[in-house]
Amino acid sequence: MLSTIKSTAEFLKNKTQFEPQIGIILGTGLGGLVNEIDIQHEIPYEDIPDFPVSTVEGHSGKLIFGTLGGKNVVAMQGRFHFYEGYSMNEVVFPVRVMKYLGVKQMMVSNASGGVNPDFEIGDIMLITDHINLFPTNPLIGPNIKELGPRFPDMSEAYSKEYLKIAENLAKEMNIKVVKGIYAGLSGPTLETPAEYLYVRNIGADAVGMSTVPEVIAARHMNIPCFGVSVITDLGVPGKIVEVTHEDVQKVAAKAEVILTGLVKKFFQSI
Q: What is the pLDDT of residues 13-49, one digit of tens each?
């Protein structure tokens, strides 16, 4: 696996001659953030050796190299999910490749269902922590020492420093943000009312089908992470309605405009 990671990274280095500092993973409906990137290279996933290909509507499937907020970035416009049938190693493969491209920091975003009764549809949630409810873990199997330790510490999965910076910027920009814990499930079904209640009872504020594996892989490699979740529907008793993927995309796209401004300022500040 390590040789494959290095080989893919070498291919991208040779093709772009570009060293990114920050890795960005864009979730459902949030791919438009790349419009703010001063793009230098744009490579479809299918053109990258050993890269999976995104199969979900709203995930374009491109690796974008450029600058944002004065920083060199590499952005995944479309991510890979466990429910698509990929193994956990395939889901986090791009994160590991980013490490060998030179990435020192990671930003992840997603669309999620809010289970905190104080949340509203369209809220931007700064992720403070996560709960892994996937049936597996990307670090299961032989540990690759060059990537990280056998038992990586997860006491600060999401950087407290980055969280504080984002909070302060949101106040300055008069942007409403909430904070919360994200629970990651396998999907692809949206949760039942009983599952929403369960997720809330174990301490989560929002639930989704991504992010957790990528953050585990990043922290294994000692890359600090900043996470943002757009609350696109509510799993709160009395507020649960039938939701489609199109509904999720529409809400995320509206929040994306506000989120983009915050992210640009955030990158300038780290």
A: 999 999 999 999 988 767 778 888 999 999 999 999 9
Cβ(99)–Cβ(223) below 8 Å: yes
Q: Mention every residue, 6+ apart, whose C-beta is less than 8 A from residue 246.
A: none
Burial 230-246 (b: 16+ CB within 10 A, else e): bbbbbbbeeebeebebe
* Rounded CA separation 127/254 (Å): 19
Among the listed residues 52, 37, 44, the one whose alpha carbon sits nearest the alpha carbon of residue 15: 44
Q: Which domains does the chain have, with CATH numbers?
A: 2-269 (3.40.50.1580)
Assign residue 197 a region (left: φ > 0; alpha: ψ between -120 and 50; beta: otherwise). alpha
Contact, 31 vs 223, CB < 8 A?
A: no
Residue 207 above 90 pLDDT? yes
What's the per-residue H, E or C state across 122-143? CCEEEEEEEEECCCCCCCCCCC
Phi and psi torsions of 201, nearest 5°:
-65, -25
Task: Count Cα neighbours of 108 within 13 Å in the Cβ-side half-sphere.
Answer: 31
Amino acid at 14: N
| pLDDT tens per residue, range 154-201 | 999 999 999 999 999 999 999 999 999 999 999 999 999 999 999 999
Could you give the CA distance from residue 170 to residue 259 in angstroms, rounded to a whole number? Answer: 10
Nearest 5 degrees, angle CA 164-CA 167-CA 168? 85
CB distance 180 to 208 below 8 Å: no
